[in-house]
TrEMBL record:
UniProt family annotation: Belongs to the metallo-dependent hydrolases superfamily. TatD-type hydrolase family.
Gene3D superfamilies: Metal-dependent hydrolases (3.20.20.140)
Protein name as it appears in the record: LuxR family transcriptional regulator
Pfam family, one: TatD_DNase
Residues annotated to bind a divalent metal cation 1: 6, 8, 92, 204
Binding site for a divalent metal cation 2: 128, 154
Domain of life: Bacteria
Length: 263
């Protein structure tokens, strides 16, 4: 059993052959995919795929790049949008200071609104952070003191120190195909040390195709390559790692249901 905990099935590069993408994922042994939204206009399409495909689940959220374009987005709208049986998460949200496509204060306000929605709905938060470790950690800690919530740092590329802070808050950490890149030594070292009970795997498809698929649009099926690399890195059997990360997925995203009993 293998799960892709973060993909964008409605993005260019996948949507043109979405059924083929899903078929190839299933043939590769992927039993569940979490289809992520980044803009309000995507919510209906993302949920529609999850309604149609029993092994696909959905999130609702606003990416930090889109914070300026969604200046009126508030917790109430997120909570309302999440009131659907196939929506299992809030996000992705967070902070991105690398591109600064949106004002940083606006990103922070949006991030906090998403956290409040996660707290109110009980759904896990999907966190994006790039070049914003200090503020991301600060906001997560401040908001956790206001009331507990669950979540995952998706496509983790941050420092070991940030990983430690996230784990102290009982958050999960998701590893993408970046871990297979030759220049990802620091990430590989961090990934090798992460506690297995807090580990997820993702593709972030259609981005970040792992070795040996670099240069191609990434697909959920490619999560198998990341799983093999990560298992070897951690000195684990690949089947055991796939099973444990699938169990973690269903534990975190409690509204999602496995295709069959795990264990």
């Amino acid at each position: 059993m293998l799960v892709d905990s973060h993909c964008h099935l409605n993005y260019k590069g996948l949507v043109e052959d979405q059924q083929g993408v899903l078929d190839r994922a299933r043939e590769a042994g992927v039993t569940a995919m979490l289809n992520i939204s980044t803009r309000e206009r995507e919510w209906g399409e993302v949920i529609a795929v999850a309604d149609r495909e029993p092994d696909v689940w959905a999130s609702v959220g606003i990416h930090p790049h889109e914070a300026d374009a969604h200046a009126d987005m508030d917790t109430a709208r997120l909570v309302d949008a999440a009131d659907h049986p196939r929506v299992v998460a809030i996000g992705e949200t967070g902070l991105d200071y690398y591109y600064d496509h949106s004002d940083r204060v606006r990103q922070q306000m949006s991030f906090r609104a998403h956290i409040a929605a996660a707290r109110e709905t009980g759904l896990p938060l999907i966190v994006h952070t790039r070049d914003a470790e200090e503020d991301t950690a600060l906001i997560l800690a401040e908001e956790m003191r206001k009331g507990a919530f669950t979540g995952v740092i998706h496509c983790f590329t941050a420092s070991q120190d940030f990983a430690h802070k996230a784990l102290e808050l009982s958050l999960f950490i998701s590893i993408s195909g970046i871990v297979t890149f030759k220049n990802a030594r620091d990430l590989q070292d961090t990934a090798s040390r992460l506690p297995g009970e807090r580990l997820l795997i993702e593709t972030d498809a259609p981005f970040l195709a792992p070795v040996p698929k670099r240069g191609k649009p990434c697909e959920p099926a490619f999560v198998t390559h990341t799983a093999r690399f990560l298992a070897e890195l951690r000195g684990e059997g690949v089947e055991a790692l796939c099973q444990s990360t699938a169990e973690n997925f269903y534990r975190l995203f409690g509204k999602a249901q496995p295709p069959e009993p795990i264990g």
